[in-house]
Write a structure and sequence with these properties.
globular; AAA+_ATPase; ABC_transporter-like_CS; binds adenosine-5'-triphosphate; 4-stranded antiparallel β-sheet; 10 strands; about 25% strand; ABC_transporter_ATP-binding; alpha/beta
Length: about 270
């Protein structure tokens, strides 16, 4: 097996609209992979297909060398996911939910209990064990969804906007947890609009725009490609991922960047 995640011609349509258009991805085991794109580009739709939450219209997906369509359960056992809507069970408490998830993955009760306690402590949720999940704040729900996604020690973790709504202290803890997983050989595939965090964590980046992949590779290669172009434009110095992203998307749009437009009527 050479890839942790490999897609070929992955496509999803909604009626006539092509949300994901013949995407070929190749993520090596142990990579920290950032999947970027503007709003509505097709990131969540792709993650949903990669984790079995949405069927592709066409194309193939292999995860850890296994055909997802043919052997979905075998794949699902080895992956963890925090999807866009988190999909928690609101009428349970956090320990009840983690116990449910742990047992669903076939962990014995003692292991589930021990990991659940450790995770709640780690996520700073240990004092919230009596509250129903439906009464959790958005950030608390996000942290619980993350805890549930890793309780079975998955080999691949898929995260759709893991830092959204999470406070700075928790974001720091989370980054540490993800880096620890990478150090122990896991693969992480994440979407985020927080490009400073992606830049700090991810070794590889792909950019999707209107359903099509428009950039894909090691972050440093992407940087040097865009950097060479920007030198021709007269700009020198190291580009941040945010600058790289804006340049790549701007080139596709061929329009005036939003920052240069004005809402003159607005005060
Ligand atoms: N169930 C659906 N029915 C119709 N259109 C959909 C559906 N799900 C997604 N889309 C459309 O597919 C496109 C891609 O959506 P997606 O949620 O994948 O974008 P995204 O890159 O995750 O965006 P964001 O960064 O805003 O979360 C959008 O135009 C969206 O409206």
């Amino acid at each position: 097996m050479n890839s942790a995640i490999a897609t070929s011609g992955l496509t999803r349509t909604f009626g006539d609209f092509v949300a994901v258009d013949h995407v070929n991805l190749n993520v090596a085991p142990g990579q920290f992979f950032g999947f970027l794109g503007p709003n509505g580009a097709g990131k969540s739709t792709t993650i949903k297909m990669l984790t079995g939450l949405l069927a592709p219209t066409s194309g193939s997906i292999e995860v850890l060398g296994v055909n997802f369509t043919k052997y979905p359960l075998e794949v699902k056992r080895q992956i963890g996911v925090v999807p866009e809507g988190m999909a928690l069970l609101g009428r349970l408490t956090a320990p009840e939910y983690l116990r449910f998830v742990g047992e669903m993955y076939g962990l014995d009760r003692a292991t589930t209990l021990q990991r659940s306690e450790e995770l709640l402590e780690f996520m700073n949720l240990a004092s919230e064990t009596k509250k129903l999940i439906t009464d959790f704040s958005h950030g608390m729900q996000k942290k619980l969804a993350l805890a549930a996604a890793v309780i079975h020690a998955p080999r691949i973790l898929f995260l759709d906007e893991p830092f959204e709504g999470v406070d700075a202290v928790a974001a720091g803890t989370l980054k540490q947890m993800l880096q620890g997983m990478i150090a122990r050989g896991a693969t992480i595939f994440l979407t985020s609009h927080v490009l400073e965090i992606v830049e700090r964590l991810c070794s590889h980046v792909a950019i999707i725009h209107r359903g099509k992949l428009i950039a894909n590779g090691p972050l440093e290669e992407l940087r040097s490609g865009v950097y060479a172009q920007s030198e021709q434009d007269g700009q020198t110095g190291r580009l941040t991922l945010e600058e790289i992203f804006i340049r790549i998307i701007g080139k596709q749009e061929g329009a005036t960047p939003a920052t240069e437009q004005e809402l003159s009527w607005l005060g």
